[in-house]
Amino acid sequence: MGRICFRRSSKALFFLFLLVFLANGTVGCGKVNDTNSNINTAALKPIAGEFAYYQKYALNINPSVPPQPSSIDLSTINNYLDFDFSPSAAKLLRNNHFVVVPSESKEFYQLYANNDGIPNFITTDAMLHTYHLYYSYLLRSTERSYLYSEVNELSQAMLQVSAQQYQILKDSPWENAARRNVAYFAVACRLLDPNCQVPAAIEKAVADELGLISRHEDTQRVSPVMNLGQNLPPLLQLKEDYTQYVPRGHYAMSDVLTRYFQAMMWYGRLSFRTNNEDESRSALLMVLALNSNDNLNRWQDIYQLTSFFAGKSDDYTYPQYQALFTKVYGPGIKYEELVKNRAQWEQFRQELARLSPPAINSIPIYDRKTQPERDKAITAFRFMGQRYNLDAHIFQNLVYDAVLENPQGKYRQLPLALDIPAAMGSKPAYQLLQAAGETQYKNYPENMQAMQTHISSLDQASWVQDLYWSWLHNLKPLLDAPVQGYPSFMQKEAWQLKDLNTFLGSWTELKHDSILYAKQAYVACGCLPPKVKAESGYVEPRPYVYANLASLCHMTREGLEKRKLINEADADMLLKMEKLSVSLKCISEKELNGGKLSEADELLVRNIGNDLYQFWSSSLKDLKKGETLAVEDHPAALVADVVTNPDLRLVLEEATGNIFTIYALVPVDGKLQLARGGVYSWYEFPWPADNRLTDKQWQEMQTNPDTAKMSKWAKSYIAFD
Fold first, then answer.
1. How many H helices and E strands in the chain?
2. Which helix (H) or strand (E) holds 426?
3. What pLDDT score does 400 carry?
4. How far apart, in whole angstroms, are the C-alpha atoms of residue 252 and residue 273?
5. Is 60 exceeded by the pLDDT of residue 46?
6. How far apart are CA 222 and CA 234, in angstroms?
7. Rounded distance, CA 346 to CA 350, Å?
8. Are the CB atoms for 257 and 143 separated by under 8 Å?
9. What stretches of 221-348 adopt beta strand conformation (E)?
10. In the beta sheet, which residues pair with residue 122?
11. Is-cis flag, bond preceding 480, omega within 30?
């Protein structure tokens, strides 16, 4: 028998890698002086990182915009008669100092381009959406040009080593575990390359598994490969939700991306449970196979890069199992010793039994009444585990069976997106949940409080550890109610709901872009432009959002440049986006502090439509067919399923639709004028799990107004007539 050796290197400890460096100095228009934020920028300390660093931008904020009467006489607004508002829209505008109306605009740039002669109102929505466009483009470009081939080569190599292990371990207690691994990697190889040769010994199990993946119909189906050679009772058989393999998001754009999606979904979801001896053997054999040849280096490159985009695994992977193997077996052992030394194997299993369960359950499983040891059933090794994400953690703690029945005896079978901002400290979000009766479920208030406490304790390094976390961090300031000295329209209660809509619209884009990697929580079973004189526009004064967005752009560019995974043109576009965000931050500060905009500032605001178009077209250049891009072919509308209830065979879908128009009464040179901009339209609805929606399906559904309704609370600021 061969000898198993642990190759020692600094990379073996790489699971500690993704602490992101915070720059020693802050960059911006002035010193930090923001009484409307919980972040003390000046107190930040640099934290060393391996992939990228987070460049913090300083702010200079002393809000001093003069207040306006509670209700505005619209006839005093110099350009009010240039617009034709319905009675309900005029009422909302009079009382809230802003109003949102539905529109047919498919993209933000399109709306701003039509503002010829109309003052632009640059919104946080427009800038957050622009980052989403480039994040999605860079992610799919990296997956197509680099990750696909890396995963394919790693899969082929792991299949080869696993087949060798199987031959060595035949006629031993480890034979079936080795055979399972051959089948496991053969499935991935076939998903990536249909011409991959599959050993005859596992060909049927692989074919059956691929059939289930191809049909992607069942939410709770016994996995042929994972249950290979095991005769377990139905409750203990490992089941998979094959509806997760529906290619969606940008993965439906090409055959290569679809194959990559399904293979990585396979690697991210299938678990080798610690309480199952045979599956634990398979997991250990995988770890040993990774130590062969160049497999570990390739695995680390894949894991580290995907972690930069989407975060670290919520499940145990190579580093943890390798550490336990070394602890029990030492630096090296022969396969024959592995088979014969039962005492060491039992010690290894005892170490596995001490491992804590993951924060998020992503497999079909029963409630604690039916399956009392469910924590053990979800504690497992995954080859390339799906990633921990804060929002899924929140959802997991606010659905059945973490929360129990309400006074009507009903269970919380699906969460609501409002759970996320509420857990992050939004009082309006929690009040909306209360009004909807969501807080009446047993344990809901206590679990919500626990999540709020946990989130409020997170340090700055946690919030900027990767691009996913940094995106969430970028949205946090939207939950802070503007204080006195901000424009009057931002101090209205309705504006806080508009900010919730912005938060949820951008969060939906985040879930859409990271749908492959982000672990998903599972519920336990049981008109023409008016001809007016061009006036100065206005930037929605959210300096912290623009500062964080600039930092996020910098982090994205620096991280990919370090790995030589971004070309000069794309890096230049990210730098341009960073500079634009900094400019909007500085303009916001001037607006709040009573400063005067320069000619350059006014030109930037007036021409924002051109900038947004450049970012939009650049982010789609890999999809360009012919000489031009049509917005009808690439609208902003998208959809993402974020939670699964296998018992009801339902998913919770989050979606954005057409870009709605916002009109705001903004102060310019001491007078109010109407400025126009764009905001997200956001939707949430349950949907059959066996028909998880793709972007194309959702965009086609947009022509039917009865497909999905916006939240009732949106009526406080949207005029739907």
1. 25, 19
2. none
3. 92
4. 31
5. no
6. 9
7. 6
8. yes
9. 221-222, 239-240, 272-273, 332-334
10. 539
11. no
CB 358, CB 387: distance < 8 Å: no
On the question of pLDDT at 20 being above 50, the answer is no
pLDDT band at 7 (very low <50, low <70, confident <90, very high): very low
What's the pLDDT score for residue 535? 61
List, as one string, the DSSP characters of 163-224.
HHHHHHTTTSTTHHHHHHHHHHHHHHHHHH-TT----GGGHHHHHHHHHHHHH---SSEE-T
Q: What percent of the chain has pLDDT over 70?
A: 88
**Collapsing DSSP states into helix, strand and coil, what is residue 609?**
helix
> CA 549 to CA 244: how far, in whole Å?
31
User: φ, ψ for residue 582 (rounded to 5)?
Assistant: -65, -40
pLDDT band at 245 (very low <50, low <70, confident <90, very high): very high
CA gap 303, 311 in Å, rounded: 9
User: Do the beta carbons of residue 448 and residue 394 sit within 8 Å?
Assistant: no
As a three-state string, the secondary structure of 460-476 is: HHHHCCCHHHHHHHHHH
pLDDT at 358 over 80: no
pLDDT tens digit string along 66-116?
Answer: 999 999 999 999 899 999 999 999 999 999 999 999 999 999 999 999 998
Cα–Cα distance measured from residue 597 to residue 183, given in angstroms and rounded to the nearest whole number: 65
Residue 507 corresponds to which tokens in the numbers above?
Answer: 């969060």
Q: Is the pLDDT of residue 424 over 70?
A: yes
For 14-60, the DSSP string reads GGG--PPEEPSS-EESS----TT-S--GGG------SS-EE-PEE--
Please name the residue that has the structure tokens 């292990």: 165
Q: Tokens 């055979």 label which residue?
A: 179
CA-CA distance, 714 to 432, in Å (whole number)?
A: 11
Neighbours of 710 (CB within 10 A): 17
Distance of alpha carbon 313 from alpha carbon 625, whole angstroms = 37
As a whole number of angstroms, the distance between CA 78 and CA 668 comes to 11
Could you tell me whether strands 239-240 and 380-381 are parallel, antiparallel, or unpaired per DSSP bridges? unpaired
pTM confidence score: 0.91
* Distance in angstroms (rounded) separating the CA atoms of residues 338 and 244: 36
Give the angle 297-301-304 at the CA atoms, nearest 5°: 130
**Contact of 622 with 636, CB cutoff 8 Å:** no
Residue 383 has pLDDT above 50, yes or no: yes
CA 107-112-115 angle, 5° bins? 140
Residue written as tokens 């659905």?
Answer: 399
Indicate the range of 15-19, 91-95, 297-301, 453-457 predicted with least confidence. Answer: 15-19
pLDDT the model gives residue 702: 85
Q: Dump strand ranges (E) for 193-346.
A: 221-222, 239-240, 272-273, 332-334
Model confidence at 52, pLDDT cuts 50, 70, 90, reads confident
Which residues, in sequence order, are CB contacts of 368 under 8 Å at separation 6+?
374, 401, 524
Closest CA to 639 of 693, 578, 709, 559: 693
Q: Tell me how far apart the alpha carbons of residues 682 and 505 are, in angstroms, rounded to a whole number.
A: 6
Provide the 8-state DSSP code for 62.
-
Residues in the chain: 721
Phi, psi of 64 (to 5 degrees): -150, 35
Rounded mean pLDDT of 234-251? 94
For 310-337, what is each residue's pLDDT tens digit?
999 888 999 999 999 999 999 878 888 8
